[in-house]
Amino acid sequence: MSTQPTDPQTIPATVADVDLLERTKVLHNGPKVDLTFSDAEMQRRLDLLRAVMDRRGVDAVIFTSWHNIKYYSDFLFTAFGRRYALVVTRKDAVSVTANIDAGMPWRRSFGENLVYTDWKRDNFWYAVSSVLRDAGVTPRKIGIEEDVMPLADLCIYREWFPEAEFEDISQDAMAQRMVKSPEEIAVIRESARIADIGGEAVKAAIAPGAAEYEVALAGVDAMVRQIAESFPDSEIRDTWVWFQSGINTDGAHNWPTTRRLAEGDILSLNCFPMPSGYYTALERTLFLGQPDQRSLELWKINTEVHEKGIELIRPGAKCSDIAHQLNDIYVRHGLLPRRTFGYGHSFGVLGHYYGREAGLELREDIDTVLEPGMVVSMEPMIMIPEGDPGAGGYREHDILVVGESWSEDITGFPYGPEHNIIEV
Hints:
The chain is an alpha+beta fold. The chain has two domains: 18-177, Creatine Amidinohydrolase, Chain A, domain 1, CATH 3.40.350.10; 179-422, Creatine Amidinohydrolase, CATH 3.90.230. It has helices spanning 39-56, 66-73, 104-107, 123-134, 151-160, 170-178, 182-205, 212-230, 293-312, 319-332; strands at residues 24-25, 60-63, 85-88, 93-98, 112-116, 141-144, 165-168, 240-245, 266-272, 278-279, 282-288, 348-349, 375-378, 381-384, 392-395, 398-402, 407-409, 421-422. It has a seven-stranded mixed β-sheet with strand order 1-5-4-3-2-6-7, sandwiched between helices. Strands 8-9-11-18 form a four-stranded mixed β-sheet. The longest helix has 24 residues, at 182-205. This is Creatininase.
C-alpha cells in the first residue's frame, strides 16, 4: 500500500515545507480487536458483494455511508466534517480514514486501512485513488451509493477517475443487508434482551415529579452496563432512551425534556441499545395513574392493531398487504387519520443519524415479500392532538425474526393496560 516515510527526521520544521508532509500513511497501531462478527461472517458479506460486482461489471466499489462501511468492515466512523470510505476491489477491502482517528479504525475493522492526513485538501481523494492503484485496478466502472453521495462529491470523483463510469450499487447492498445471518440475528436477539432491561429500569424510575431526562438516564445506564457485560470488546456508544410524557408523546422521535411527570400523564418508553452500531428498540405506552375512559379505549385499540400485526408477520407476507390489513382496524374505529407512520421496519446497522433498509418497511408503498432471515418491527402508533379526549401518542413496538415457516417475537417486555399503568 502506498505511503510516504514516517521517520521523524523527515518531518519539516516550518509551515513553508508543508508540501513535504505525508499525504497518506499506514497506522497499524496495536493489534486487531475481536470484532462484532467472525472473519468468516465478514468474508461472506464481501463475497456476496463481489458476486454483485461480477454481475454488474463493476471493477471497484467506493462506499461512503455509515451503514455500508460498517456492514462490510465493522468500522463505524465519526465524521466531524471529514470524509470516510471503504474501497472494495476483487481482492481487497480497504477503509480510508482520517488521521485524527489514528490507529483505531485499523484495530476495529476487517481488512486493510489507509489513513489520509489534513496536509492537503484533496488527500482523501488521493487516498482513495491510491487504494485502487495499489490493487492494480484501473476502473472502467465504479460502484457508488447514489442515495447518500452528495452531488458535489460525485463531481470530484469524476475528476479523479475521468475514464470511469459510475454505477449505483446502493440497492444491491441494501438487499443483501435485509437478510440477516445467524451471527447478526444473535446480536439483535441479545440487544433486544438488553432493551428489556432498559425498559425495566425506566419503569422503576417513573414517579410524579421526576423529569423526563432523569427517567431516561436510568434506562441508558442500565443498558450501557449490560452491553459492556454482553459485548466485552465492543465500543460503548450511541445507546439512548427517548422517554416522553404528556404532549411530548406526540412524536415517535421526540427527545427527553426537563418536563416533570404528573399524575394522569400518558407516557412513552423508548429504549435503544446499540452494541457496536447494531440497533434494536423497545417502545411502550404507559400511564402514570389510571387513564381516563377515552385514553383507555384508544390504548386498547392500538394494542389490538399491535397484536394483529405480530400475527401477520410471517414468511411470504407482503409488506404492503400487512399495512392494508392493519389499516382496516383503524378504519373500523375511525382512527386511520390519526396513524402517524408505517407499521414497522428492518433492523441491523442503523441509528438515529444513519441509514436503514428502506426496502423493508411495513408501508402501503413497499411490496417486499418477507423471507427467512429478515428481522422487522411491529410498531403501530396513533396520535390524538391536545384538546381532544385521550390526547397523546400511543405506540407499542416488538421485534420479530422471520423464520422458515414462522416468526419469533424476541421482545419480552409486556405491553398494554394490564401491565403498564403505574400506580400513584
